[in-house]
Amino acid sequence: MSLNKEHQQQLLNVAKSSIQHGLQTGRPLTINLADFPTALTEHRATFVTLQKNHQLRGCIGMLEAVRPLVEDIAENAFLAAFKDPRFMPLTEDEFGELEIHLSILTPAEAVSFTSEQDLITRLQPGIDGLILEEGRKRGTFLPSVWEQLPEPEEFLQHLKQKAGLAPNYWSKNIKIYRYRTEMIG
């Protein structure tokens, strides 16, 4: 389901407002669902990615839809700015330099494959977001990661590392799920 330009702009405004609210209060913006159209109150999974000077500055999201879209954006924008463990909390000085990117995910679907090589041939660079699961280990890459890792084999190796596995690790127990994203911003 694609959102129209007005809805996309509303979500970007919510993300920005939630970060501003966080700078002032230390909490995410509270959302009143009655203020938003139905398209923005459906349960959807999202990621909010923050960049400063085209460099990652925070990225937080959910793989499952657990709350209304507009609430998920407000919460994840706040978390990306202030709670991403890879970065110090965002400062007031950095706020004006932020680029905010929203990813709205489709529900994940299992990918069937017979081997690692078979899986690699089934990947769709630039389109697929992937979730890799092996026991208790789990990692995901949004479709935008293909920009840095355009080769399917390399993409998969890095995803294994993100999940806490060796890049050359393989097991018949690995599960792969794919999703797509609608990018905003």
Radius of gyration using CA atoms only: 17 Å
In total, the number of domains comes to 2
Q: State the CATH class of the largest domain.
A: Alpha Beta
Strand content of the residues, in percent?
Answer: 15-25%
Q: Which structural class fits the helix and strand makeup?
A: alpha+beta
CATH topology of the largest domain: Glycoprotein, Type 4 Pilin
Mean pLDDT, rounded to whole units? 96
Task: Please give the order of strands in the largest beta sheet.
Answer: 2-1-3-8
Question: Would you summarize the structure shown here?
Answer:
With 185 residues, this protein is an alpha+beta fold.
Main traits of this protein?
Glycoprotein, Type 4 Pilin; 8 strands; four-stranded antiparallel beta sheet; single chain; alpha+beta; Dna Ligase, domain 1; 185 residues; 24% strand
